[in-house]
Fold each of these.
Amino acid sequence: GWDNTSTYAGEVKNPGRNYPLALLATLPLVVLGYLLPVGAALAAGVDPAAWKTGGLPAIGTAVGGPWLGYGLALGGMGSMAGLFASLLLSYSRIPFVLARDGYLPAALARLHPTRGTPWVAIVLSAAAQECPHHRGRREQNADADHLTHHQRGGSPGAELPRWAFGRGCRS
């Protein structure tokens, strides 16, 4: 994702100065975000086999109790919302520029009258990112399951019922 920033560099004030500053500020946080949980789990004697996709809430519960497991699950949800927003910012600028240059329909180049954002391209990109056929229904079920399995009292491998996600972008 570090390379996605180039698609909206024109909207950043002084990107030659601000991008390096942002990298200097965030890179240590990203490194700590990986090292602290691994170090805490290793220090607590958590089995390395527990480290799998979506396993951090269960590891947090084993290390610090249910409150830590719930906190990590909520943090994961916030992280996914931030990831969606940052990818939407980046990906929506591609159809906008292609429309502005005449390669896609001109409607995708429409800007919001007060905010100056390519709102049609943003809406289209958001819909495309959230279509179940782009990610696969099994991954969606697994993502949601890992965040809610403590509340349901089920095992981390149990899936939510298919009706929980509706029909999504398929007709």
Amino acid sequence: NQTICGNVTNCGICSSGTCNVTGQCVPQVPVGPVILFSDDFESYTSPSHPPLYNEMNAKRWTINDQTFPLQNDDVYLNRSKSFAGTYSLLIQDDAQVIANVSTLGRTNISVGYARRTISAETSEFLRVAWRVGNSGAWAVIENAQSNAAWQVRQINLSTAASNQALIQIRY
């Protein structure tokens, strides 16, 4: 499961409410977190590539699975190791999945996810990182080593994640 949240901010142009991306005032929304991106991996129709990758791309995911041991075989839905519901997303070997999220008009961005790192060798780990835009250095959120139990993580990102057309979260 993966959720990215942010608080609504007033753009300073409106006397009350907030501004949308075109600068128009919209009514004030309730104070508190707003879910900007979420995926429980339950709505996909295919458990593996290529249809799964196409479906994930349509939901603002980027999948990088290009080398060892074969191309396009290291990200798939798994029934036997789910956190909640029927499926979890299994990422193995060198593969990565990247969530693409707009935080325009939002502040106090946080990332929440449930993860389980099993069968990892001592030199292997799950690295979670984020960045602004689609290029440049990644800021590491977590390096998780092998752990058979599910763990839920909630991490606040720096203020640099606020009000951005694109931030990326990489798993």
Amino acid sequence: PPISPPEPPRPPAPPPIPPSLPTIRYTFELRPESFFTGPTQPNGYTYGNPPYGWHWQQSGGTPNQDTGVVSGPKGDGSYYYTESHGRVEGDIYELRYDGSACAGGVVGVISFYYAMYGHGMGSLHVVAADGTVVWGAERDHGPGWHRSSATLNSASFLFRAVRGHGDASDI
């Protein structure tokens, strides 16, 4: 009987699909202690050395009627904001998240609301733990809240706001 040629080698099996990281819905209200910022006064004004703090607003609007919001992103609720009054152009504000609530110590994707309304508005950036800017916005974006997202894949991140040239530049 004829001899059959040997079968060619089979390609290796593909690697197993890694498990996906769980999605965690996380809001400032659940664990505000996981966010770190510099000191602020009850009226939102900052003090100390830069980077300056973001103020935690439990409800209602900001003190500056000309630039700030009148409520949280969905018409109520709490939020952080930067108070531009009493600061100068180029001052930096940072709000840091330590990553403590994220599985595997990795923050994958964040979604957030931001408000940037007023003459002389500065800039807002999301910065990964390694210093990479993964999202940014500049100038006046009109009244109200705007929704956005950023992909991080980082152990932690921060929101960095830079004050614009006018008092009407709360973020």
Amino acid sequence: IINVNTDAVHDFDGDNDYVEVGDDSSLDIAGTLTISCWIKRGELGVKHRLISKVIDSAPYDGFQLAIGTDNKVDFNATINSAWDHQESASTIDADSWHHIAGVYDGSDMYIYIDGVEDATSSATGSIATNNNALRIGRGAGTTTDYLDGQIADVRVYDTGLSAANIQVLAS
């Protein structure tokens, strides 16, 4: 659905930089979903919201890809009115490029790091949609969690890509 300039690297300082894509009906994804990007973090131990299209209060209708204070990847989506959360087993270091993807295929949520499946959990149902803008490098509403680092090749698909497709994106 979207691909934010695959040739560009967006550099964020963690203060107040972000990209706002806007709210287009094509981003009201209620079925299967894949969100992915290349990321190079500048700081460990802080939350970085990478790709976010959520409401800033429970039940957080929408979806997001983030890295938590524990340096693990978080893939979240409001499925059947519940905030489903998948956390990676692996951590993401700073100062190295990594490809990260979150996939919801209608029955499971997956996190891929550098083209390899890192975590999975069951989840079924529809993703709740919202009228908020898609943001890159920042969360929704008053939430900051600005990215300190670089991000490239941001992609949002209205389908759950296969492991083989993710490996191609990560290569």
